[in-house]
Amino acid sequence: MKLTINGKETEYAGAKDRPLLWYIREDLKLTGTKYGCGVAACGACTVLVDGVPTRSCSTPASAMEGRKITTIEGLDSKAGKAVQQAWTELDVVQCGWCQSGQILTAAALLTKTPKPTEQQITDGMTGNLCRCATYHRIRGAVARASEIMG
User: Fold this and answer.
1) Domains and CATH numbers, the chain
2) Which of 34, 35, 92, 138 is the most exposed place for a label (fewest CB within 10 A)?
3) By CB neighbour count within 10 A (0-12 exposed, 13-18 middle, 19+ buried), where does 54 fall?
4) Which of 102, 70, 62 is nearest to 83 (CA)?
């Protein structure tokens, strides 16, 4: 079956129940998507599927035919670029393990809601855990990215 990842068509011939995360990391060598908990609870493995944040550790690769998958390596939307700029400006990253999932989730939030309130940012980022607890910087960077987007 054919999967579209970061705008490129790839051939998937693996097991039906193989998580998308392992296809992305092991076969495609796109290691920005991280393994965190393995049970879709932390968000480190988040990718965008048709623009929606999706936990790749619990999503079978075989279920992704015909869907548009974006990893951190392929994030090039207006919102994605603004988020990456804001992350750099506000020095969000500490250890970095969760950041690809945080950034993809923030980009999806800003694509859907370009001018989010503080509560919408908090709600939109809920479920993405940061073991370094940089939540205040993450929320600030989402707000800053909204400003950058204009």
Assistant:
1) 2-74 (3.10.20.30), 78-149 (1.10.150.120)
2) 35
3) buried
4) 102
pLDDT number for residue 49: 98
SS3 string of the chain?
CEEEECCEEEECCCCCCCEHHHHHHHHCCCCCCCCCCCCCCCCCCEEEECCEEEECCCCEHHHHCCCEEECHHHCCCHHHHHHHHHHHHCCCCCCCCCHHHHHHHHHHHHHHCCCCCHHHHHHHHCCCCCCCCCHHHHHHHHHHHHHHHC
Tokens coding 15: 């097991």
Please report, as a single letter, which amino acid is at residue 107: A
Strands 2-5 and 68-70, sheet pairing: parallel
Q: State the Cα–Cα distance between residues 60 and 142, nearest whole angstrom.
A: 30
Q: 28-87, pLDDT tens digit by residue?
A: 999 999 999 999 999 999 999 999 999 999 999 999 999 999 999 999 999 999 999 999
